[in-house]
Amino acid sequence: MPRKTPIRMCVGCRQNLPKMQLVRVVRSPESEISVDLGGKKSGRGAYICRDEACLKKAEKTKAIQRALECEISPEIFARLREELLAEGEEDE
C-alpha cells in the first residue's frame, strides 16, 4: 500500500498542495523567523508556495503573522523573499 502524501495549505493562495511543493516558514522557540527547507525544524510553522505572488498576498493580508502568532518586520519579509526566490531558482 503506497504511503499517504501529506497535504498542507498555502497561507497566501489558500490552496491545498503536497507538503513537498511548499516552503515552511517557522518561528523557533526563541522567536526567530526562518525558512525551513527540510521541514524538520522545531517551532510553529506556516506553509507558502514557492511563488513571490503568494508571499506578497500573505504579507498584505498578514496571513503569516496570524499563522505564526507573532509580528513580522518588513526586513524579515525581505529576507524570506530572497530565500524563496533563491530556492525557486535552484529548482529550475
Describe the model:
This protein has 92 residues and is α+β, with helices and mostly antiparallel strands. It has one domain: Hypothetical Cytosolic Protein, Chain: A (2-Layer Sandwich). 37% of the residues lie in helices and 24% in strands. The protein contains three helices and five strands. The chain has helices at residues 52-61, 63-68, 74-91, and strands spanning 7-9, 16-18, 22-27, 33-36, 44-49. The chain has a three-stranded antiparallel β-sheet. It is globular and about 45 Å long. The mean pLDDT is 88.
Helix fraction by DSSP (H/I, runs of at least 4):
25-40%
Looking at the structure, the CATH topology is Hypothetical Cytosolic Protein, Chain: A
Number of strands: 5
Strand content: 15-25%
* CATH class category: Alpha Beta
| Regions with little confidence, pLDDT below 50 for 5+ residues | none
So how many helices? 3
N→C terminal distance: 32 Å
List the helices and strands and how they pair.
Blueprint: E1 7-9, E2 16-18, E3 22-27, E4 33-36, E5 44-49, H1 52-61, H2 63-68, H3 74-91
Antiparallel strand pairs: 1-2, 3-4, 3-5
List its traits.
single chain, 92 residues, alpha+beta, three-stranded antiparallel sheet, two-stranded antiparallel ribbon, 3 helices, 37% helix, 24% strand
Task: Give a short overview.
With 92 residues, the protein is an alpha+beta fold. Helices cover 37% and strands 24% of the residues.
